[in-house]
Amino acid sequence: FHSSHRWTFTKTFYKNNMRLQLLIFVLFANLVISRKHYKGRKYDLTLFVRNHNVSDATFFRLVGVDNTADFNVSAGNTFEHTFEVRRKGFWTLFVEFPGDRYAKSPRKIISRDSYRKWVMEVYYYPGAVGFSEWHKLSRRGEMHIHG
């Protein structure tokens, strides 16, 4: 190579390399900005808590994806609440008793792709609270056992 040819090659190489770097930077910045503002589509999720025989609870608390519901439900009745949810996540039921005692249900992950209605059964045993697994509720109000 003659010295002037090397200079032209080097100038062209760096110019193209800088263009490529700028393009990669712009694409990456656009990706970061677009992900930051993404919010999932909202959907309604209805949860039911059937209290079979827990009578001395102070209150019940249902904690889930960006939502919390405090409620009372007497023995033999069912609590129903519809939440507006944007993403999948875990749901847990707490039952609080006098004297700062509480019971905690197993966690259940629920996503937009699964059923929209779920039921949990709550039972009282001497000195303990029993929780069923979360069960799917069909459109006709029938409970599915596999959940």
Question: What is this structure, in a nutshell?
Answer:
The protein is of the alpha+beta class.
Can you walk through the features of this model?
With 147 residues, the chain is of the alpha+beta class. It has 2 domains: 1-38; 43-144, Domain of unknown function DUF5300 (Immunoglobulin-like). The chain contains 1 helix and 11 strands, in the order αβββββββββββ. The protein has one helix at 3-36, and strands at 43-51, 59-64, 67-71, 78-85, 89-97, 101-104, 108-110, 117-125, 128-131, 135-137, 143-144. Strands 1, 4, 8, 9, 10 and 11 form a 6-stranded mixed sheet that branches. Strands 2, 3, 5, 6 and 7 form a 5-stranded antiparallel sheet that branches. The radius of gyration is 28 Å and the shape is elongated.
Topology summary:
Blueprint: H1 3-36, E1 43-51, E2 59-64, E3 67-71, E4 78-85, E5 89-97, E6 101-104, E7 108-110, E8 117-125, E9 128-131, E10 135-137, E11 143-144
Q: What letter string, H or E per element, gives the SSE order?
A: HEEEEEEEEEEE
How many domains, in number, for the residues?
Answer: 2
Mean pLDDT over all positions: 83
Q: What's the CATH superfamily of the largest domain, by name? A: Domain of unknown function DUF5300
CATH topology of the largest domain: Immunoglobulin-like
Helix percent band: 10-25%
Question: How far apart, in Å, are the first and last alpha carbons?
Answer: 74 Å
Top-tier CATH class of the largest domain: Mainly Beta
The counted number of beta strands is: 11
Silhouette: elongated
Key features of this structure:
single chain; 147 residues; alpha+beta; Immunoglobulin-like; 2 domains; six-stranded mixed beta sheet; 1 helix; elongated
